[in-house]
RNA-dependent RNA polymerase (Zea mays), 200 residues
Amino acid sequence: MFIPNYTKGLAPDCWLAHMDRLLTEGVDQDEKKSIVENMIKLVDLYYAALDGHKVDVDRHLRVKAYPHFMEKKGFESYHSSSILGRIYDETEEIIAQQCDEQIQITTLPCFSEVEATPECTSLWEHRYQEYLTKSRGLFDLGKEEKNDEFQKLYQHYKHLLYDADELEETSRDLSDVFMEACAIYRIVYERAWCTRSVSS
């Protein structure tokens, strides 16, 4: 019967938690010495586990709680005040500030020249929702396969607009193509403006 060896995951997690404690201000020399000794033992256990040996992390080497920057869901944690914890907090603060800043999205005048008919707008609103549904199903694919499938999706809707693979090959009236292009632009723009996301 296969028995999973959790040491390969547990040892480095405990090692990092010990390192956080080692880098925390106010730790006396005796505790630092003990921490370093435990970290060395954890390294030895980790490499033994990598070699395929059935080893276990002794209880005195394990930690009762993990620093918050490790994001160990389901485990007890504490807010680290070490340099590692401070770097994590500052990074999270910067990310939060960037997310709070509204993305400025402006419309291009050339796509406001022609007003699409209600039928045209309704048609492309339906197709855009269809596109969003299909594209969401591609995000779990591998990078190369995802790129290929997005390219196929793009070509499909481009063909719906041109009734051909490329604009130069279309037999449609170019004024109709431009009207529909304006409708597509406004539909996508309005969604991007509402969500403040150019990737929407």
